[in-house]
């Protein structure tokens, strides 16, 4: 969806969806499944090509490719392939819906999606969400969250950020002063000012505002956010801050968090790989190594195994050395 970044997954050259559909059918027919063939096709085509393969599969075999994949695979390997086969907008909608379904809400997912996408992407997701789930994304978000965090998500969901790219250094000075007055210079915090500025100003202007804030106070706005806020609202505002200053580093930190410590948050790992591989995953890989001193591949190798691991390798543009 984004023109600014280096993807790890590019459209396949000499693409033949009919051949791919037949090869996939062959890989799943009869006894056993040729998982390597599934990886070779599904993980080395872009989303648009995967949609075309599914149409051909249905046309030629009268069967649904996702249903066949579900019956032939399991676990995280299955989740990854099924996620890849969904149109990307449907995938985002499903992730948001899952984050709010059942008991409790996975606020991190709401932050990761709503704090990082452009207006047109959020509008597209909102329209499709209504079609898929018969509910308005905004009202779902409102019923699942509360307080400052609810207001932040409502602002982001409105998708009315200025995207002109115009910068006004004087206005930046003014906004930096407003943020100071709303936070560090008063008792308590006026969160509405932070909400307004971080949700409305364009990214280029926000860069100016953050620099201005730093030159006035001697520390980053991120540090101030950590001091003035806590919990979900803090995480949300910091996510916006990081997306403005260095988006690749933000997603590198999401990948790191999914694998750090005991166990792996596979849902998170899969989501970041699926949503960024056609946009800027090469940049994220670079940021990951810079921040954590080891390659993303080595972390994936340590945290995953089998076909799932090899499928992730393909998506992050790594060879199956081991």
Automatic annotation (TrEMBL):
SUPFAM superfamilies: Annexin. The keyword Mitochondrion does not apply. It holds the Pfam family Annexin. InterPro entries: Annexin, Annexin_repeat, Annexin_repeat_CS, Annexin_sf. PROSITE patterns: ANNEXIN_1, ANNEXIN_2. Belongs to the annexin family. A pair of annexin repeats may form one binding site for calcium and phospholipid. This is Annexin. It comes from Drosophila hydei (Fruit fly).
């Amino acid at each position: 969806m984004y023109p600014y970044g280096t993807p790890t997954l590019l459209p396949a050259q000499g693409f033949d969806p009919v051949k791919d559909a037949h090869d996939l059918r062959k890989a799943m027919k009869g006894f056993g499944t040729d998982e390597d063939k599934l990886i070779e096709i599904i993980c080395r085509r872009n989303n648009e090509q995967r949609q075309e393969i599914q149409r051909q599969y249905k046309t030629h075999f009268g069967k649904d490719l996702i249903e066949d994949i579900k019956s032939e695979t399991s676990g995280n390997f299955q989740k990854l392939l099924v996620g890849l086969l969904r149109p990307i907008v449907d995938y985002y909608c499903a992730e948001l819906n899952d984050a709010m379904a059942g008991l409790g809400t996975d606020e991190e997912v709401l932050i990761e999606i709503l704090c990082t996408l452009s207006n047109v992407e959020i509008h597209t997701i909102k329209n499709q969400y209504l079609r898929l789930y018969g509910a308005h994304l905004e009202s779902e978000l409102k019923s699942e969250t509360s307080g400052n965090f609810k207001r932040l998500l409502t602002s982001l969901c409105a998708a009315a950020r200025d995207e002109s790219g115009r910068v006004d250094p004087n206005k930046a000075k003014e906004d930096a002063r407003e943020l100071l007055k709303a936070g560090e210079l008063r008792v308590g915090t006026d969160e509405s000012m932070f909400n307004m500025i971080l949700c409305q100003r364009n990214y280029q202007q926000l860069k100016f505002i953050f620099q201005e804030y730093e030159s006035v106070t001697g520390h980053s706005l991120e540090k101030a956010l950590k001091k003035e806020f806590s919990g979900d609202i803090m995480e949300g505002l910091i996510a916006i801050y990081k997306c403005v200053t260095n988006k690749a580093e933000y997603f590198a930190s999401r990948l790191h968090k999914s694998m750090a410590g005991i166990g792996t948050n596979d849902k998170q790992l899969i989501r970041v790989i699926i949503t960024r591989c056609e946009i800027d995953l090469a940049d994220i890989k670079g940021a990951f190594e810079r921040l954590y001193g080891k390659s993303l591949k080595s972390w994936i190798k340590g945290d995953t195994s089998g076909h799932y691991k090899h499928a992730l390798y393909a998506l992050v543009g790594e060879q199956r050395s081991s």
